[in-house]
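User: I'll paste a sequence; please echo it back and then give the predicted structure.

Assistant: Echoing your sequence first, then the prediction.
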Amino acid sequence: MEAETVKLEQIVMKWFPDMLPFLNQKELNSMIILRDGLTILEPEDAMEIIQLSICEHQNSAYLH
């Protein structure tokens, strides 16, 4: 299978739509490259991708 690039929002909407209000637009617009495509992504892997994306965006945030 060929790699596929999707927005994090697509992953959230497919497996965890209840999480949508808790993610900001920058996180939802993150581009995610899926080695084997969206169709065979498992829920556990989707959750890990969401968690890592949130962490990545928090790391770039500055506290004042």
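The chain has one domain: 4-62. Strands lie at 4-7, 31-34.
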